Amino acid sequence: MSERDASAAGPTAQDAAENQQDPTAQRGGDPEKTLLEQMGGVGGLAYSAVPIVVFVLISSFTSLMPAIWSAIGVAIAIAIFRLVRKEPLQPAISGVLGVAVCSFIAYRSGDAKGFFLLGIWTSLIYGGVFLVSVLARWPLVGVAWSALNGLGFSWRKQRRALRGYDLATLAWTVVFAAKYVVQQWLYDSDQTGWLAFARIAMGYPLTGLALIVTVWAVRRASKVAEQEKAEALPEPGAVDSKPSLG
After folding, report:
1. Are 102 and 48 in contact, with CB atoms under 8 Å apart?
2. CA nearest to 124, candidates 188, 168, 184, 180
């Protein structure tokens, strides 16, 4: 190989070595940071609880309509505050729409507990979808992570990586199932105050546990992919044993 050819090939070899030394380049970023960003960050999780607390407090001391308008007003104020701080737009808009839909259901039902009906049934639907994805061998945690980071789906052919994504997806299934069972029971028992408490209390701890399992699954799948890629690469200095035709 001439000196010019070596210099031309150099960057490619160097890039390949750097990619092997930096696993996050192939993972698409740190899983903890990416997942939290998609959920609106730690602040987004905290902001989502404020309209619920306001709604329950106002409805307890006054009536349904003041509680509805107070919750919507607080949600809009939080969205404006986040926009002023130049935080992600999507979680702010989603928060306002979520509170508006929950408030509309409460208004139509004529009962404060109707505010939580959307979340209850959403948990049931999400839990069912996550479970079906595992049975179909397309675990949603793996699909979502690959879609968010522009990765392929080769992990479906890697048993250990697929098993990790299955476990993470089942963790979210359990979270949604627990939310549905507990909150539906409180809804049927007309325990609006405890329903709000369960909505908030079950949100943070269970979501945190599911995130831990998800991060573990993402890192496991990335490690498996790196190991298989390293095993597929020829050893340094290996010579092609195919006979020459010339």
Report:
1. no
2. 180
Provide the token pair at 104. 């509309």
Name the more confident of 67 and 161.
67
Q: What is the pTM assigned to this prediction?
A: 0.73
Stated as kind and residue range, the H or E segment containing 149 is helix 140-149
Is-contact 20 230, C-beta < 8 A?
yes
**pLDDT computed for residue 184 by the predictor:** 96
SS3 annotation, 181-235: HHHHHHHHCCCHHHHHHHHHHCHHHHHHHHHHHHHHHHHHHHHHHHHHHHHHCCC
Q: How confident is the model over 220-239, as pLDDT tens digits? A: 887 877 776 666 666 665 55
The answer to whether the CB of 200 falls within 8 A of the CB of 115 is no
CA atoms 27, 171, 129, 103: torsion sign: negative
- Please state, in angstroms and as integers, the Cα–Cα distance from residue 65 to each residue in 62, 71, 107, following that order: 9, 10, 8
| Of 105, 104, 120, nearest in space to 196 by CA | 120
